[in-house]
């Protein structure tokens, strides 16, 4: 079996300027804090971040925005982080706002190898700008294209040493789907156990999708 165990310094070796990174979480809950800090400390820049939101200035992926490391954000809302809005208005950072359901479905399509999907959400609004419209059975739809990333950073509650993951409560939001939609996936669990300690029916993300695991600090 492949040894997927790495430390936080080895995780940082996967970061580079200009890459596209998906990060799990909802206003910071379910966002891997040590991996985000390592990303910040690495000094990489010109990142494109795909996430539900940019959390707050001091939590989640917010510090990456505040420190000017982000070239573009693709997210469903930015209202909780005023620095994101300021940088967008000042032209310092590109922000693509996507309805939340549309965003997660674009990620799911990227993970499933689909070419996109049709949705009525956003028809007749600014969301439709630059997108193809298709009429089906008399109803107008937008063609939304899939999203993929170079790297996905995932937080789980439990992981075994082969990367089988269990999430807890709200952290089971974007994490399971972004684990499908990136070339490399790094998981940061709260607790690590041996292979076989997680009941098969309890596994939410199978280890086959996880490339590397950063051990909890207490290990």
UniProtKB/TrEMBL annotation:
Q: Which SUPFAM superfamilies match?
A: NagB/RpiA/CoA transferase-like
The answer on whether this UniProt entry bears the keyword Glycoprotein reads no
**A single Gene Ontology molecular function, please?**
CoA-transferase activity
In terms of InterPro entries, this protein maps to: 3-oxoacid_CoA-transf_A, CoA_trans_fam_I, CoA_transf_BS, NagB/RpiA_transferase-like
Q: Where are the transmembrane segments?
A: none
What SMART domains does this protein's entry cite?
A: CoA_trans (SM00882)
Highest rank taxon of the organism: Bacteria
Database matches in Gene3D superfamilies: Glutaconate Coenzyme A-transferase
User: What's in the keyword line of the UniProt record?
Assistant: Transferase
Matching PROSITE patterns: COA_TRANSF_1 (PS01273)
Q: PANTHER family annotated for this entry? A: ACETATE COA-TRANSFERASE SUBUNIT ALPHA, KETOACID-COENZYME A TRANSFERASE
Tell me the protein family, please. Answer: Belongs to the 3-oxoacid CoA-transferase subunit A family.
Q: What is this protein called?
A: Acetate CoA-transferase subunit alpha
Species the sequence originates in: Leminorella grimontii
